[in-house]
Amino acid sequence: MKPTLFMLAAGMGSRYGGLKQLDGLGPNGETIMDYSIFDAIRGGFGKLVFVIRQSFEKDFREKIISKYENLLPVEVVFQELDALPEGFSLPEGREKPWGTNHAVLMGKSVIHEPFAVINADDFYGRDSFAVLGRQLKEMAGTKNTYCMVGYRVGNTLSESGSVARGVCETNSEGYLTEVVERTAIQRINDKIQFTDEHGQTVILDENRPVSMNMWGFTPEYFDYSEDFFKTFLKQQMHNLKSEYYIPLMVNELITTGKAKVKVLDTTSKWFGVTYAEDRQSVVDKIKALVEAGEYPEKLF
Predict the structure, then answer these.
(1) CATH number of domain containing 217
(2) pLDDT, tens digit, for every residue of 234-253?
(3) Full domain range(s) for residue 246
């Protein structure tokens, strides 16, 4: 059974108005998402699931899904604010989506095999899908051992400003012990650094693994996520800005000993449009990859 690629695309309509992150960046107007899907297919993935908001379903089916549906099975699920467990109702004034792990929960009814979770608007690179695809195949039939692609932090920076990354701690066997979201990471005088909560400057090694939201799970992850979402809602329901993130769930599973997460190394360089001025640099990087033979001129 081939693993499934689960793409988080529900943020699309809101952040850029309409479907602007479907901006054509490749030589034939390819989007970042097109490259991820191309890499996933050659990395052995067999199904695509998108989580989107229902309001742009028609647009999404016409512009996006029509490209892929002849290549492999495609499913669409929806992340809506009122998709809450029984006994919970939407708090008045809540406009912000419930976060990435709530989006993941929406896939429960259509995903029954090992699956990867990625952001729709990040360029992850060929090697990362190859590494993750191999690991997910090995996870077939197992439970409670997950994985995460750990990018070397030096391969994930933006030339236009600082970035936020989940900085990972691992044990001697390469399993995740903690992932902590750090903001304002940047290269200054050739050193990668950020300021911690005590105001101290922390220097990160070039190869320190960070999370770019590229995870591998088996289906029981949905059950854990459902249970813990109820706990989250009891504590955070009235905080209108609170979000149920994947690292929050993963940290909970690690600290309670219910699951472990293997951190996979990749040589891939991440890039994305964090800042508007990153756009040209992304176009140039894709062009260079096409010229180097990593990707065909026309993907699909």
Answers:
(1) 3.90.550.10
(2) 999 889 999 999 999 999 99
(3) 4-149+211-252+268-291
